[in-house]
């Protein structure tokens, strides 16, 4: 390896493909953080060996977090390299993926799909870093197309081509809007691919995931413009629809479909795309709508600084009015919170008119009550508010004194000092409002039932306790609805009138007792044995006939 010691290159590649994760991590750090960014050029054979080790480094990566971290490290180095080295790094990556694609099993396929997606995204980041230079873009797109769609190698890596065609628009979408020339350089190769390749699946992928999307969004954009609906400029319908309407794809597909060099098997699909884009462009012309790709200055987006316009200061009276609105909002907001808490306290009382046991209260000092609403002086000291024009507000002693007077007036109008339950009135346990209530014993020493409440007289309760109706969920079991009637076994005589027995079922059924009614079945009779006995009797009868005839013959001869 150029620039490394003797024997260090093969050792590094072996560590990249090692089974031990710590060894792989060390090798990746030394390669991506130290050695590779410091190189100006690397031989093709050396880069192929490096990518062989990196491929099996991804192969051994297990679990999604580790896979994602490794894939992000490998792809993010692409924009950081020199332009020539970055294109070589990307082209050898595509070659390695096509070469090893047939050996990837279905369990590891998803992480290699993610690897291709991340590299394609960083490929566009690299183009953006070059300020979308047209010459560098043409070189880069040529590397992408020659390494995948029209590659002349013998590898069976068509899955790489299909995946890139499927995700191309998804990955280029965050970089829009772009100039018309840039969009033409990005999408024009797909038009030429349809006339060259003979893979029907690839033609279908490019048509459905690239050009059909442009046709559908263009048609949708015309419908929205005709109906007068407002659409966000960053919406996919506007971005892709504008490209489909303005780029003139109908002429390009017609020239491709009528040329001699067009693949005969793809000519029908190419001319069908020509008709779809031609109809779309005619609809745009008939409606008379002006749609164009915006001119964007990609190179100076981050360097632009908004120009600040100085605005003269305001008088003390205007400042006090602005801050007074903030004080009114704070006061009304705290009053609303207090009324909500009082409603909750009233809702906690029972239906029978009794109230819960009086809980211990922590007395609130007047200073704590004042902390519920921010004073204008606190607003002035803690936060320096800004008005819509962008100039800051300066607080003087006269402004603060005027605000205090206005605050007292607003507090009197809202009724902040009225008898409204606040957070200080609620029972607290260790500084927090207690939400649970233990069941207390009554005066006679027994615990209250489900529907009863304990407490003092009506005048002593504070209305903050809660009933036990909402505390727990009661589950009742009724034996009446869980019984199955079953007749006696054996049945008693008809002269006796006995009630039937009951058997529990469902959750009340004990282990060993069959559920539901039990039917008495008559014992099965063995029919086979009876049939055999009849056959034996018949055989015996048949065998007796020759003996009878023989005895008759003997008697006749003796006489």
3D architecture notes:
The N and C termini lie far apart (131 Å). Among the domains are: 9-175; 196-295. The chain contains 18 helices and four strands. The protein has 559 residues and is mainly α. α10 (200-227) packs parallel to α13 (267-287).
Side-by-side strand order of the widest sheet: 1-2
| Distance linking N and C termini | 131 Å
Q: Treating each run of at least 4 consecutive H or I residues as one helix, how many helices?
A: 18
Question: What structural class do you assign from the helix and strand content?
Answer: mainly alpha
Biggest beta-sheet profile: 2 strands, antiparallel
Give the overall silhouette: extended
Strand content: under 5%
Family: Belongs to the RRP1 family.
Pfam families: Nop52 (PF05997)
Biased composition (Basic residues): 338-347, 526-537
Keywords: Nucleus, rRNA processing
Please specify the SSE layout and strand pairing:
Elements: H1 8-16, H2 21-35, H3 44-60, H4 64-76, H5 83-100, H6 109-129, H7 134-147, H8 158-172, H9 180-194, H10 200-227, H11 236-246, H12 249-258, H13 267-287, H14 316-347, H15 366-370, H16 376-382, H17 397-414, E1 428-429, E2 432-433, E3 483-486, E4 501-504, H18 527-558
Antiparallel strand pairs: 1-2, 3-4
Write a short abstract of this structure:
The chain has 559 residues and is an all-alpha fold. The protein is built from 18 helices and four strands. β1 and β2 (432-433) form a beta hairpin.
């Amino acid at each position: 390896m150029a620039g490394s010691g003797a024997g260090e290159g093969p050792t590094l590649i072996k560590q990249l493909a090692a089974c031990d994760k710590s060894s792989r991590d060390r090798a990746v750090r030394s390669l991506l953080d130290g050695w590779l960014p410091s190189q100006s050029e690397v031989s093709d054979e050396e880069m192929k060996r490096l990518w062989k080790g990196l491929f099996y480094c991804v192969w051994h990566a297990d679990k999604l977090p580790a896979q994602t971290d490794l894939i992000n490290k490998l792809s993010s180095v692409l924009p950081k390299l020199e332009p020539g080295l970055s294109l070589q790094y990307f082209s050898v990556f595509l070659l390695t993926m096509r070469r090893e694609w047939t050996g990837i099993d279905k369990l590891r396929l998803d992480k290699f799909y993610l690897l291709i997606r991340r590299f394609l995204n960083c490929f566009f980041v690299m183009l953006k870093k070059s300020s979308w230079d047209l010459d560098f873009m043409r070189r880069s797109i040529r590397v992408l197309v020659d390494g995948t769609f029209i590659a002349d190698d013998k590898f069976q890596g068509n899955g790489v081509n299909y995946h890139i065609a499927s995700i191309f628009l998804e990955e280029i979408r965050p970089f829009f809007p772009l100039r018309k020339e840039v969009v033409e350089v990005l999408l024009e190769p797909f038009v030429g691919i349809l006339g060259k390749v003979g893979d029907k699946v690839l033609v279908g992928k490019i048509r459905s995931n690239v050009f059909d999307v442009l046709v559908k969004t263009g048609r949708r954009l015309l419908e929205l413009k005709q109906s007068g609906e407002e659409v966000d400029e960053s919406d996919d319908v506007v971005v892709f629809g504008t490209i489909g309407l303005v780029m003139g794809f109908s002429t390009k597909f017609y020239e491709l479909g009528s040329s001699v060099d067009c693949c005969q098997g793809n000519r029908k699909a190419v001319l069908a795309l020509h008709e779809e884009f031609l109809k779309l462009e005619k609809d745009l012309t008939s409606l008379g709508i002006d749609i164009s790709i915006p001119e964007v200055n990609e190179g100076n987006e981050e360097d632009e600084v908004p120009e600040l316009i100085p605005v003269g200061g305001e008088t003390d009276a205007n400042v006090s009015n602005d801050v007074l609105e903030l004080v009114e909002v704070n006061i009304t907001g705290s009053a609303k919170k207090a009324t909500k808490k009082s409603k909750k306290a009233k809702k906690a009382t029972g239906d029978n008119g009794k109230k819960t046991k009086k809980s211990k209260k922590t007395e609130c000092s007047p200073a704590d009550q004042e902390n519920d609403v921010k004073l204008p002086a606190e607003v002035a000291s803690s936060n320096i508010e800004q008005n819509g024009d962008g100039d800051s507000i300066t607080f003087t002693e006269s402004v603060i004194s005027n605000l205090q007077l206005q605050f007292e007036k607003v507090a009197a109008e809202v009724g902040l000092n009225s008898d409204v339950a606040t957070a200080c009135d609620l029972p607290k346990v260790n500084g927090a409002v207690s939400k649970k209530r233990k069941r207390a014993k009554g005066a006679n020493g027994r615990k209250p039932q489900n529907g009863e409440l304990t407490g003092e007289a009506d005048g002593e309760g504070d209305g903050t306790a809660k009933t036990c109706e909402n505390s727990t969920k009661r589950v009742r079991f009724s034996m009446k609805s869980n019984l199955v009637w079953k007749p006696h076994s054996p049945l008693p005589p008809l002269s006796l009138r006995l009630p039937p027995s009951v058997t529990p079922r469902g959750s009340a059924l004990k282990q060993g007792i069959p559920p539901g009614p039990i039917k008495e079945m008559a014992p099965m009779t063995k029919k086979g044995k009876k049939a055999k006995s009849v056959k034996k009797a018949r055989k015996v009868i048949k065998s007796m006939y020759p003996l009878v005839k023989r005895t008759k013959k003997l008697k006749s001869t003796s006489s």
